[in-house]
Amino acid sequence: MCPRWTHLTFPIFKFKICSKLDITGLLAERRRSVLDTIAIFNQKGGVGKTTSVVNFAACLEKEFGKKVLVVDCDSQCNASSYLTTFTDTEEGAVRTDLGVEEYLKGNIPLSDVLNRVLIQFRRKIVESNIYVVRGTKKMDFIDDFDTDIFKRLVSEAEELGFDYVLFDCPANLTTPTLATLSAVRFVLIPVSYDIYSLSGYDMLIDNVQAIRRTTNINLQVLGIFFNNIRTDWNLDKYMYESNRDNLNGLAFKTYIRPSRTVPTAALFGIPYPYYRPRNPVANDYIELVNEIIKRIKKVKKGAK
């Protein structure tokens, strides 16, 4: 029997997903990888979780040559919409109507619910090395949620040769979020300049510690990063510097500057490092991801 969150009364979730295509090419790429699993989570909405997940995945794939899986755990399904904008594929491309809902409800392999992400780059539609497991708006209505399901997903992702699995979590501590945190190694917390995005920080840390004591002894907060920071504005600069210095060394040095073209890239369904690769904001994402990679290596080295 898998453990249940019997001591908690959070709503249960359900997922929607896609059709099956030939996955011969994907399975041919199977290899063992050193997998890193990350949940991007904050109990406050509007701090850029989904945008960060998509652009982190794009940086890892485009700039660092990694194979990345994005799992959409949010019933808003924004990551799914962002990453499945382009549907024209060549023969043999991995596209499916299945997703998290079917994976949670049935004994089907991860390979059956993968969508290979297509990206418009230099006026061409290209196949990336990013895959997404679609979310569903029905996630709140899943009747029977196996809290170990994402542990199985992580194990299968490693078998399929993924280097990173990024989970896009909703802005509340739902059952899927708890299941995600029981399966991942790291948590990244996005915040904006306003004080409210950090107001639940202590509670979030307490929740992480509770999960460490019960279902995932290896879970830890990898760090906190700041979105939409304009250091030429006094308020932004004050909030960023004062909060950064009071977060016990968890704040990353690199922050993401605002740009009008970031929401435009989302509208067109193109990750920002592909949409405006020479824009300073694209460089912010690259530098931040580089910091994240280095911190993961440092944590792993210290754990040995």
Description:
- It is a single chain.
- This protein is of the alpha/beta class.
- The protein has helices at residues 24-28, 49-62, 78-83, 100-105, 149-159, 175-181, 201-214, 234-244, 261-268, 272-275, 280-303, and strands at residues 36-40, 68-72, 115-121, 124-133, 164-168, 186-191, 220-226.
- The chain has a seven-stranded mixed beta sheet, sandwiched between helices.
What layout of secondary structure does this protein have?
Elements: H1 24-28, E1 36-40, H2 49-62, E2 68-72, H3 78-83, H4 100-105, E3 115-121, E4 124-133, H5 149-159, E5 164-168, H6 175-181, E6 186-191, H7 201-214, E7 220-226, H8 234-244, H9 261-268, H10 272-275, H11 280-303
In CATH, what is the class?
Answer: Alpha Beta
Global outline: globular
Instruction: Give the oligomeric state.
Output: single chain
Rg of Cα set: 18 Å
Order of helical and strand elements: HEHEHHEEHEHEHEHHHH
Q: Tell me what the CATH architecture is.
A: 3-Layer(aba) Sandwich
Q: Got a strand count?
A: 7
- The share of residues in extended strands comes to 5-15%
Distance between the termini: 32 Å
Largest sheet: 7 strands, mixed
Looking at this protein, list some descriptive labels.
304 residues; alpha/beta; Rossmann fold; seven-stranded mixed β-sheet; 11 helices; 7 strands; 15% strand; globular; disordered N terminus
In short:
The chain has eleven helices and seven strands.
